[in-house]
Amino acid sequence: MDLCDQCEEMMQPYVDGVLSDVQVQRAKEHLDRCTWCAKRYRFEVELRHFVRVAAAEPMSPELKAKLAALRTPLH
Amino acid sequence: MSESTPTTAETRRLAAESRDRVRFEEEALELSDQVYRVARRLVGSREEAEDLMQDAYARAFRSWRQYQPGTNLRAWLLRILTNLNIDNGRRRQRTPETQPLEEGDYFLYNKLEAAAPEENPAEERVIERLSQDSVVDALAEVPHDFRDVVVLVDIGDFSYADAAQILDIPVGTVMSRLHRGRRILKRNLAESAVPT
């Protein structure tokens, strides 16, 4: 497995921030040197953001009122 | 002041409980936008999401005593909501866990790049070749078991551990489904962005 393959394997946990310090260091060193992986890393971060924004659909005021109406009435 | 009569003690207890309940209901409602964000993508349509929200909040308000103050209320609400969603029988069509999936993590970028090379990365971003609608569609096509995890972590911002608790599955399962779910999402996006 070459370094770029390893980097691809590590990309998700790296972006999620769940790698060990040693693994993070190794990934960073590779990304500093390899523009091919660095582009893909940048894309990955942008994609996460893009998905989050695209998936957002505000709740309707009607639903909000319906949820509030489910509260226990005060005596 | 005499507080020892049973009626006074009972009145105080009821007042305290009523206050706790009001606080719980207020906090739960304050989180409803964030809960809806996740609910909307767990199901296919807005109507389903709205029904699910109402069922979940009705149940949460009924069983509020089971919530332990100081723990993650948003996760608690979503646990109720995902359980209801599963009870609705909307899934249980078993998802084959082992459908072939050769694509790696760079797959989507590679496809987009190959379709039109990034000439000047400073001016043009490959991500802009995707449309927001295509993301929503691609996500909706990810099989339930995988989608639940992707939605909780990538849209709901839950940790692996929280997602595991909400769905009542081991953390290792969260990680493998997340990994696979994201790849399926990318494959779907690649298919819609770069028709073969």
* Chains forming the largest contact: A-B, 34 and 44 residues
Shape annotation of chain A: elongated
SSE succession of chain A: HHHH
What is the alpha-carbon Rg of chain A in Å? 21 Å
Average pLDDT score of chain B = 88
* Class by SSE composition of chain A: mainly alpha
Description:
The complex is a heterodimer of chains A (75) and B (196). Chain A is mainly α and 75 residues long. Helices cover 76% and strands 0% of the residues of chain A. Chain A has four helices and no strands. In chain A, helix 1 packs across helix 2 (21-33), helix 1 packs parallel to helix 3 (35-55) and helix 2 crosses helix 3 (35-55). Chain A is elongated. Chain B is an all-alpha fold. Helix content of chain B is 66%, strand content 0%. Chain B has nine helices and no strands. In chain B, helix 8 crosses helix 9. The model of chain B has no long low-confidence stretch (mean pLDDT 88). The chains are: A mainly alpha (75), B mainly alpha (196). The A-B interface holds A 8-9, 11-12, 16, 18, 39-40, 43-44, 46-48, 50-60, 63-64, 66-68, 70-72, 74-75 and B 18, 21-22, 25, 29, 32-33, 36-37, 40-41, 46, 50, 53-54, 57-58, 61, 104-106, 108-109, 118, 121, 125-127, 130, 132-133, 135-136, 139, 151, 153-155, 160, 178-179, 182, 185-186.
Structure characteristics:
A: 75 residues; mainly alpha; 76% helix; B: 196 residues
Write the layout of secondary structure elements.
The complex is a heterodimer of chains A (75) and B (196).
Chain A: H1 3-16, H2 21-33, H3 35-55, H4 61-69
Chain B: H1 6-30, H2 32-42, H3 46-62, H4 73-87, H5 107-115, H6 132-140, H7 144-155, H8 160-167, H9 171-193
Helix pairs in contact in B: 2-3, 2-4, 2-7, 3-4, 4-8, 5-9, 6-9, 7-9, 8-9
Q: Can you summarize this structure?
A:
Chain A is mainly alpha-helical and 75 residues long.
